[in-house]
Amino acid sequence: MVPNDDKISQFQVALIVFLTPIGVGIFTLPSTLAKDVETNGWLSLILGGLVCLLEIYFICCIAKKYSPAKFTDVLKQLFGKFLGTIFAVIIFIYFLIFSALEVRLFAETTKMYLLYKTPLEYIIIPFLFLGIILARCGIEPIARFFEAVIYLVAITFILVFLLYLPKSDYSNLLPVLRIHPLKLLKGVEDSFFSFSGFEVLLLLFPFMRDSKKSFKVSAISIMLITFIYVVIFVQCIARFGVDYTKTLLYPTLSLIKSSDVPGAFIEGIEGLLFSLWIVLIFTTLAMFIFAYSVIAGDLLKQKEAKHIVILFLPAVYIVSLLPDNIASTFELVDKLIKSLGYFVILILPTLMFIVSKIKGERA
Amino acid sequence: MKRLMFVFLAMLIFAGCWDKIEIEDRIFVYGIAIDKVSNELNKSKGPFYEYVNENIEVTFLIPNPSKVVSGEQNVFENITVRAGSIPEAIEKVFKKQNRHLFFGHEKLLILGEAVLRDDKILKEIVDWIDRDPQKNRSSFVVATKDVKGIINITPKLEKLLVPYIIGTLKNQEEVSTLLNIDFNGFVSNFKVNGVAILPIINKVKDEGVIKNVFLIKDYKLLKEVDDRYIRGYSILTNSLKGGRKLFKYKDHVLSYLISNSHASLEAKEEDGKINFNVKVKMEGDIEDFILNEDLLKADIVHNIEKSIKEQFENELYETVRYFQDTGYDYLKLKDWTKKHQYSLYKKYEKNWDEAFKTAKFNFDFEVKIRRVGVVR
């Protein structure tokens, strides 16, 4: 019997780290990588995954030391009250904008592929409300929801693999490693940020029933994500070739679109896959909403995260409608990642790790 | 709060209503045929650019569901409009038909020769299909010299024209001198390099016959290539799926049914030229032979193999020479070199066409006859 104490098990942690990063980024990833590193995207994905593992290692080391303490308290202990609060605010803003952009990109994609005439606002609002309903229930219902949908996701991926494996030209992946190291670094950067979402792990430790294996389980999750990303990249390149993939906006969706099921007993499989994909985006959104509510709750010394969730809902909605068009949305995503993203998922865990080591030695 | 939530959730249900189109209000476009009929430029100076000229003629091939059900013979309806561009053509269809055009099941794109000669229109069409996520990316693309003729064919064994043409194209598996190109394959090369190969279908008497291919270069038609070079092209690009080769043996023209072919390339540089060594392994059966002559002897089979091998090699030399004369590397060797011999590729990348023209080729066929039928 699983106790109903708003704590999550290690398996649920693994699921959260696995399902949160996979969101709308997966649609555009192959074309970004093809643009920057051509055929070597798989390598940069693996390297990006390794960097990600390193960050997770840092996070787990910090957590081991300060385990039951809340994240904002840890920040305050490490950097002092003033700096700690500022960092927490930055992370809060990051999660808020990120959830807004996630919703916007989801709505744009849905509008383009499924609901052509439905106003953007009407796609965003119900989706946000659904996210809120889940997020305000707390971490345990979220984790249980994740447990419920993982089978759907697994079926989706297996379907996709089976459909595309035999029909593509894998020689498109050649030449291997013929690339300038600096360019490869750019690819690693792209890939690393495609994992963004794993940083919710920072907040999860106070909610864990037992955090001993958290590094192991999240590492497995990240490896699985890397594997899925690599497969999708390889499939896109093998199907379309590097030069054409570059020109596509959503290569992953085009890949799904260009499927022809052997035997052709069903057609238009993309509708099915797309609806399953919405679940993936929803998991990301629910987790991000929960993440910002936790931080804001700590900052405002408000114990009930429920109310915080709704308090900032208008902000999420407004930010999601800020960009004028799809191009400026992508620009904003880029800006967010280049500024806040760097800080939150790359610099902060490293900094926390270093400071905790220094402080630990002193103690 | 719960009631409020209920109201908000109700929005979920109604959110879909904007896109509601009843299935009987749709026109399922099965094929699109595009031809260019005039050369006028859009001379409009004012803010109105619509309905100024009618350069292209677009025909939407649409199955009529009620006719399909009642089992009538000709169930395709052609909706033809003249317009300046395809979006305008679609608009014009809306002006004369009550139903909505739906492109999700589009299976065939027929391009007239005149369209292929006009790079501007061709680019527009390709971009229009490529951009819209609704379009079917695995639809086939064919060229024709006579769009009107093609769309008015009444297939003999099929009810619908489009499956008839697609079925013929899919016979690539049976005929070695036939190519079928789907939109994915067409657009990737066309968009990036401005080149493509398209099979030609023409009306001969009352049938659609696929013969020859068009080469496209710089986004427009370059020339027509005879069927005889297609097998060589397929062998070199490893896209041969089946078919046969007729060969000469003792004054008889006999048939070798190819069941498997694999070409492996090697490239070397020799005195400023690229030297391609092509090894082809081929398996197949003998389909017909001379009556009452015993074929089932190892040395006879070996002789025939040798003779087929020589004839294949000659065919490939001819084919390569022909493509070298066109001035562009349609044989995808640039791609191959980039993938497998990157340093060589880097060296010749800038003037690849020249390098391809002067490249030398050596062919080495390994032809195997696996079966000879049930007669000795």
TrEMBL record, chain A:
GO terms for biological process: spore germination. Its main location: membrane. It is found in: Membrane. The keyword Ion transport does not apply. The keyword Transmembrane helix applies. GO terms for cellular component: membrane. It is a multi-pass membrane protein. The chain crosses the membrane at residues 12-30, 42-62, 82-100, 120-138, 145-165, 191-208, 220-242, 274-296, 308-327, 339-358. Pfam families: Spore_permease. Belongs to the amino acid-polyamine-organocation (APC) superfamily. Spore germination protein (SGP) (TC 2.A.3.9) family. This is Spore germination protein. It comes from Caloramator fervidus.
UniProtKB/TrEMBL annotation, chain B:
GO terms for biological process: spore germination. Residues 214-373 form the Spore germination GerAC-like C-terminal domain. Gene3D superfamilies: Nutrient germinant receptor protein C, domain 3. The keyword Membrane applies. The keyword Cytoplasm does not apply. GO terms for cellular component: membrane. It is found in: Membrane. Keywords: Germination, Lipoprotein, Membrane, Palmitate, Signal. InterPro entries: GerAC_N (IPR057336), Spore_GerAC-like (IPR008844), Spore_GerAC-like_C (IPR046953), Spore_GerAC_C_sf (IPR038501). Residues 19-202 form the Spore germination protein N-terminal domain. Its main location: membrane. It is a lipid-anchor. Belongs to the GerABKC lipoprotein family. This is Spore germination protein.
